[in-house]
């Protein structure tokens, strides 16, 4: 499966005010929908050219040449969501309880007019199905967003850089 990481573009300007607030609100909504396993609603935020990428660590990786934890194009992401939406994905029965905190949000306008949001997060996952263990998933996220004709944002790129991405990880059977 070939995925395409958008080419790096220099930021033209930092974004503030109402536009920053709108991006922040989008990040909060996206996180809440994922935390609540509302995957079909989460999927509505995604563009047709979406890339969803979790590299193996925080280094400078090429998603087409290096091993990734997840490297989904839109088609593969659609399949992942369909599996999760059945409620029968064995690693998520019953569904893990999740909550994430998001902070240090930086928003920039890219040269093509799209917006890039960088943020730190900590996700807490209670694995009810197996050990009852509380897993902690810290990292940094890069979102790339475009305005849709109705004024809402569509997400076309999400890169999740886990602090412990180079370590042995438990199953990542949810949208991080």
TrEMBL record:
GO terms for biological process: 3-phenylpropionate catabolic process. It comes from the Bacteria. Keywords: Dioxygenase, Oxidoreductase. The keyword Transmembrane does not apply. One of its GO terms (molecular function) is dioxygenase activity. Pfam families: Ring_hydroxyl_B (PF00866). The keyword Oxidoreductase applies. Belongs to the bacterial ring-hydroxylating dioxygenase beta subunit family. This is Putative ibuprofen-CoA dioxygenase small subunit. It comes from uncultured bacterium UPO38. The lineage of its organism: Bacteria, environmental samples.
